[in-house]
Structures are given as structure tokens and as C-alpha cells.
Amino acid sequence: MTTMMERPTPTSGDAPKVGIIRHLNVFTAFAVGALTAIIVWRLSLALLPADSESAPLFTREDKITLLSMIGWFVGFMTGIGALVAPFRWVMGKDLSHDENMFLAGKDMGTKRYFRYTTDHKVVGIQYLVITMVIFGIGGILAMLIRANLGTPEGGWIHPQAYNSIVGTHGIIMIVGTIIMVTGPFGNYIMPIMIGARDMAFPRLNALSFWLIVAAAIPLIWGQFIGGISTGWSAYNPLAGQAPLGMNGYIMFICIFALSTMVAGANITTTVVRMRAKGMTWNRTPIFIYGVVASVALALPAFPVFFLSQVMSGMDRALGTSFYDTARGGSGWLYENLFWIMGHPEVYVILIPAVAALMEMAPVFTRRPLFSFNVAVMGIAGICGLSVLVWAHHMYISGWAPLLNAPFMLTTELISIPTGMLFLVLIGTLWRGRLWMTVPTMSIFALLWNFMIGGVTGIYLSDVPADAFLHGSMYVTAHFHYTLMGAGLTGALAALVYWFPKMTGRMLDKKLSWISFWLVQIGFNVAFIGMFLVGLQGQPRRVEAYAAIFNKGNLVTSIGAATIMTGMLVLLAAVIGSWRSGVKAPMNPWQAKSLEWTVPNPVPLENFETLPVVTEDVYGYGRKN
């Protein structure tokens, strides 16, 4: 039996009283952030003493830059309204009912998307838009890279600018792939899928999104003061010698890490505490397991990355020596801290995308998910082993060579739980009544792409083979097959699948098919070409290369242009369908999970009466 959740109601018919919150939005956030940064910059110039002759290079300039970026961050979060509720709490008060309804975006129309809005559905749409923006910028940078590699001599872009483009492309695409599933669909779909009215901590939900927006400006700022010249991993002590733009990277990572920690705690609490009555763990959709596993990996991993950047900033601005070997530090310290985050991060990206496809597989085969328990064990096995493989990135560094064999073993063992997820997808497809949609074909594409990514990864897990392949374009091709070929394929399928529920419109069928084939064909052409030049010996992150690699690079550039064309077609489909597409029915796929039981548009609190779950969501083909 379920009951309606009681809600306080205003005691009078007066207009809602929402105070300063009414005046805060993204425009005030940028204005206050910029003003605060300028004030802090001027004060720092006036008050900070000049460096002594023995001080490390750039120390004063680094202090001024970092303080100004911190000022931007505090000002932006103040201007968007993130600090209103904490300030009220410190003063011993709380937000009124009217203020909470205003924060939820009640009756605000499109304005709510430009504010600090706590409704999980608004946050999901905000994440979807910012993910598309991130991929758009990353794609443009990728095409600049391919344009510079159009001839062996390179030279179209200045080497310093080229290095910065490569590093910036890498880090923003990593961030984009981290949030591409858990951001839009983990926020919009997940609470409805578990039968909840909202996230456990709605204000933290809004905070996780606006932290990402706040993080973007220091990274852009950094491009004008030297950029990221070290590659996306920003290895120290090299990063300690980089231009002032490296401070933008440090701030970007620190703020983004805060976003992932906040989002991870919120998602985990929501799933553990707010599932509908009767939704036992055996009845919880597999997509929920994927999202929770992703944030469970991120929660311990990203604080380590955060701390690595804090120490990097201290080395640059305060003259400490965490990574300076000349003064007792260690570059290996940074490598360990980075890769303790950097390899679980691969599965933070991959697991929710694969789980989304496992969620769709029963819908488009009209049969139950093949061995739900095996799927859960596969996800758990990947999570457990993924925290024990980080040092395979460090075989060639000389750190702890006696540990190479154990890390080689754990890396190769991770193929077992990964194979379990493959078996679940193949078992679900086997003898199913296939409905050939873009999500269905995306399952086949994932199996193909991730098979290539996995098999090529086995060679990199082997110490002797890695000694030959390390630092080559082969490595770049491998992780693109994993993160893009598998992860992004799952995310694009999720977009097609849940677009009707998120927008109330069907995604243009013809354009989505054209986009699918352009992206998949272009992707395989591009990165098979990159495998070939990598096996021939072309190194990564080079601005020019030997003429022997010319044909392989031409093939890669053609494939990259095809990918970009496909993504532009998809963008046209999203914009056109969102504005004037065919109106979607409540359940266009005839699926059984709870998000398809609510009307379009989804009400503010999702469910008028909280649902009771009596069976799992994969009962296709079963007799009643």
C-alpha cells in the first residue's frame, strides 16, 4: 500500500516570497565571478611581495593566477545562488516553502535551465546540453589536430599551441565521457526508474552541475596564458615547469573532482535509500547497478586526483617539493596518484554505458535479460579489479619493477568479468525477436568495438609488448576504441532511447540512422589507421612525423572527418526533433521500467502516488 507524501502549503494567497534567489542566475554568476576574479587579481598584485632570487620560477605569478581563479570560483558559486542555503543554515534558518518551490523551477518555464534549479529533471537536461557542448569543443580540437597532421611536416599550428590543443582535447573529452551517461540519464532517468520523487539531496544535485560550469572558465582562461603543454595527464615534475596555463588545468581538475564527489554521494544515497517499495536489489534495473558502480569507483578515485593537483599547485605557488626530485620529491608520486584515478576512471566511463545497453537489450529483443545475476557479478568484478591495475601504465617508468608481474596478472584477469557482460548481451540477443532500432545496432557496435579495444589492450597489459608499444599511436587507438567505441556508443544509444521521455519528442529516425553509420564507419576507419601507424612506430603527441606514416595518417584524418560529419548530423537531429519533432507517446518502446509509466512532460514530483514494485522489469515473454 502506498500513500501520498505530505507537502506543506502556503498559508495565504500572497505571491511567493523568494528574496534574493529570484535575482540569481547564470548571468549574475558570470558577472560576480568575473568581478571577484578582477578584485582578487588587483589585490594580489598590490599585496604579494616580489620573489627572491632563490624562489622557483613563476612562483609569484602562479600565486596571483591561482588566487584569481579561486576568486572566480567563489564569485561564480555566489552569483548562481549555491551559497544561499548554506548561509541560511549558518544563520540558524532554512529556506521557506516558496523558496524551495522556486529552486525546484515550479512554473518557471525555460528560465529554470539558467538557474540553480534543484529538480533532477532540469539538472539532467542541463547535463545533456553541457555534454554536447563539451563534445563539440573536443571535436573541433580533434579536427585541428588532424589538420596539423595532414602532412608529415606539420607546421600549420605553432608547436606550443599544438601541444596545448592536444592536452586540452584529451582532458575535456575525458571529462565529457565521464559525465555523458551518469550526468544526463543518471540525473533525469534514474530517480524515476527507482520510483523516487527526486534525488536524496536536490541542492547537491544542482551543485554538481554548476561546479562543472565553474570549472570550465579556468581551463579556457589557461589557454591564453600558455595552455596545457604536457598532455592531458599533466605529469609532474614537467607540469611544474609549464607556463601559467597549467594553473587553469589544476583549478579545472580540483573543481571537477568536487563535482564528481558531490554527485557520487548523492546518487549512491538516492539509490540505497529511496527505491520504491518492493524494489529489492533483485528487482532493481541493471542500469541502476551501472550508475551506482560508476560513482562508487569515482568516490575514492577522484579525491586522489584532487589531492595530486593540490600538491601540484603548492609546488608551483608555494615552493613545496612534492614532485621536485632535486629537493627530495618524486615524479613517481604523481604517476601513482594520477593513475590510481586514471584507470578506475576508464570503468567510470564504460560501466554505465554498457549497463544502459543491457537495459535496452530486453526491450528490443522482447526477452528477459540473460542472467541478471551474471551481469551484476560482472559489474562487481570489474569494479574490484579496476582498482588493482593502475601501475600497468608505469611499466616503463622504472617504478617498482618487481610489481610488474602482479599488475600484469590483475590487468589480464579483468577480461573475465568484462567477458561476463559480453555473454549477457549476446545471450539476450540470442533468439530474440530483434527490433532493429539504433539502440539495437548500438549493442552490436559495442560488441565489435569493445572486442577490438579489449584484445588490443591485452598486448598493452603484457610487459614485453608494452615496452615496444608504449608511447605510440597504438595506445591512442586502443583507448579510443574503449572510451569512444564502447562508451560513447552506449551513450548515444541512451540518447535515442530516453530522448522521448526527456523532451516529449521522438528523435528523428532517419537522421539518427545516418548519424549512427557515419560515426561507426568513420570511427573504425580512423582508429584502425591509427593502429597501423602505431605498430609501425609513430609516437604520440608529435607535431610532425616521418613520411612513412603519411598514408596511415591520411586514413585517420578521413575517418575523423566522417565522425565529425556524423556528430553534426546527430546535433541537427537533436535540435530539430527537440523543437518540432513528432510528439512521443508515454511509452513508445513498450518498456516495463518505471520511467515509462509517467506522462509526458514528467510532473514536477514524478509520481502522484509512489509506486509499488511486484516483479522485475525484464518479464518479456513470460506467461502471466
From TrEMBL:
Note the PANTHER family from the entry: CYTOCHROME C OXIDASE SUBUNIT 1
Q: Tell me what organism the protein belongs to.
A: freshwater metagenome
A molecular function (GO) held by this record is: cytochrome-c oxidase activity
Pfam families hit by this protein: COX1
Name used for this protein in its record:
Unannotated protein
Membrane spanning segments where?
20-44, 64-85, 122-145, 165-186, 207-229, 249-274, 286-306, 337-358, 370-393, 413-430, 442-461, 481-499, 511-534, 554-576
GO biological process terms held by the UniProt record:
aerobic respiration; electron transport coupled proton transport; respiratory electron transport chain
Q: Which UniProt keywords apply?
A: Membrane, Transmembrane, Transmembrane helix
- Disulfide bond in keyword set: no
Q: Which InterPro entries does this one have?
A: Cyt_c_oxase-like_su1_dom, Cyt_c_oxase-like_su1_sf, Cyt_C_Oxase_1
- Give every Cytochrome oxidase subunit I profile domain span: 112-614
For this record, an example GO cellular component is:
membrane
